[in-house]
Amino acid sequence: AGYMEIAGQLAAMTDAYVAGIKAIDGLHLLAEPDLSIINFGAHDFDIFKVAEAMEARGWLPGLTQNPKGMHAMLSMFHEMARAKFLDDLAASVQVARSETGAAALKAVY
Asked: How far apart are CA 1 and CA 99, in angstroms?
């Protein structure tokens, strides 16, 4: 019974992370998670720039190469950090967008 309760809590927490990621403009899941491993990417900016910005904020982002993305293997230890992670992720997306825009301007001029 205890295992089932914890598994349900983990599934709900993973769903909350997924909803938070989907709410950030420009991010998308690379696959809907069956368990507690999430993987997400971006089409309009470099997701690795997002990872760099997250690292600068003290996070240790996991990366995937093909397709290019960020991933996390969640446990209940991640619940207390969810709001901060999602806030920092949204801010890091903005950094990546601004760097992508700056690079595009340099290429044009």
From this structure: 49
Query: What is the distance between the alpha carbons of residues 44 and 30, in angstroms, rounded to a whole number?
Result: 14
Instruction: For residue 30, report the phi and psi dihedrals to the nearest 5 degrees.
Output: -80, -20
pTM: 0.89
Return the C-alpha torsion angle 10, 24, 90, 55, nearest 10.
60
State which H helix or E strand residue 62 sits in.
strand 62-64
For residue 95, give the 3-state DSSP assignment. helix
The token pair at 60 is 């240790």
pLDDT tens for each residue of 56-66 = 999 999 999 99
CA distance 41 to 64: 9
**Region for residue 26 given its phi and psi (left: phi exceeds 0; alpha: psi -120 to 50; beta: otherwise):** left
